[in-house]
Amino acid sequence: MEKYQKLEKIGQGAYGSVYKARDTSTGQLVALKKNHLPISDQGIPPSTLREVSLLQLLSNSLYIVRLLSVEHIPIHNGKHLLFLVFEYLDTDLKKFIDSHLQPPNPTLLPPNTVQSFLFQICSGVAHCHSNGVLHRDLKPHNLLIDVEKGIIKIADLGLGRAFSVPLKNYTHEVVTLCYRAPEVLLGANYSTAVDMWSVGCIFAEMVRMKVLFLGDSEFRQLLIIFRLLGTPTEEVWPGVTSLPDWHAYPQWEPQDLAHAVPYLGADGVDLLSKMLIYNPADRISAKDAMNHPYFDTLDRNQF
Ligand code: INR
């Protein structure tokens, strides 16, 4: 790996660590992702190869972090390491929001930034979904930002997605539940709709500058969702009371979502409410979200 000069560690994904590094031949900054998945002496498992080609295919979108190359390093006794080399971006949405909250002059994100970022996120998610890929762990930390160009890109896709998203990552760091769809929390099967729930939570967070549903256990995460959106019923979500992890919950009435996102206009609240629909089958898709009137004041052709 003399091709890259390792700089500082920038991330800790569920499946490996990420380093900022410099491509020694070009001077270009990159993100090096070391893959901790077991690689046997049989070479790279076909499932890993499939995921790498999928990552390459997905990174055709401007709104998905670009995979530049894959480095396959043989180590001792027939074992191998796999390094994924990605383009480097300086900040993520979590840091971007935090930087706006810094004293002495904390500010909201400008509404046109929220609108533009949300459109780009939907575009990236639509690209994943049209290729049959679910992200399943969208959160502000996984959205990388090129501040100068005003571009936001989805990261942490792919490798390991054949498995379920673990509750703790391999360093035992707690995995955030805040963006997790209710059907996932209730033990139902996944669909593309899980990502749109996360996008809704991220949309609300860009407007509020605060996490929308801040839970610290799967059970309490559900209670926090139910308290705002009302406890789901068989009427709004057929089959919900038969899901594996359903319990008897207090019966809360839906609150007015607009109160949770002050300063968001009526079109924005309408789009948000469609992303936070309980029944995954009724939740808005990424493609349909891009056609919502909330984006009518945005020049869709510039994307
Ligand atoms: C930054 C990260 C900047 N850039 C965290 C980060 C803080 C500040 O994870 C990152 C990445 C980057 C990154 O520039 N390129 C990539 C992360 C990932 C892939 S992944 C590519 O897949 O999330 O680990």
Radius of gyration: 20 Å
Class from secondary-structure proportions? alpha+beta
Strand content of the residues, in percent?
15-25%
User: Mind summarizing the main beta sheet?
Assistant: 5 strands, antiparallel
End-to-end span in angstroms? 36 Å
Give the low-pLDDT segments: 162-168
CATH class of the largest domain: Mainly Alpha
**Helix count, per DSSP?**
8
Q: Name every ligand kind in the structure.
A: ligand INR
Query: What sort of overall outline do the alpha carbons produce when their principal axes are compared?
Result: globular
- CATH homologous superfamily descriptor of the largest domain: Transferase(Phosphotransferase) domain 1
What does this structure look like?
With 303 residues, the protein is α+β, with helices and mostly antiparallel strands. It has 2 domains: 4-87, Phosphorylase Kinase, domain 1 (2-Layer Sandwich); 91-302, Transferase(Phosphotransferase) domain 1 (Transferase(Phosphotransferase), domain 1, Orthogonal Bundle). The chain is 29% helix and 17% strand. It is built from 8 helices and 8 strands. The chain has helices at residues 46-58, 93-100, 111-130, 182-185, 193-208, 218-229, 266-275, 286-290, and strands at 4-13, 16-23, 29-35, 67-74, 80-87, 91-92, 143-146, 151-154. The strands form 2 sheets. Strands 1-2-3-5-4 form a 5-stranded antiparallel sheet, covered by helices on one side. A hairpin with a 2-residue loop joins strand 1 and strand 2 (16-23). Helix 3 runs antiparallel to helix 5 and helix 5 (193-208) runs antiparallel to helix 7. Bound molecules: ligand INR. Ligand INR binds next to strand 1, strand 3 and strand 6.
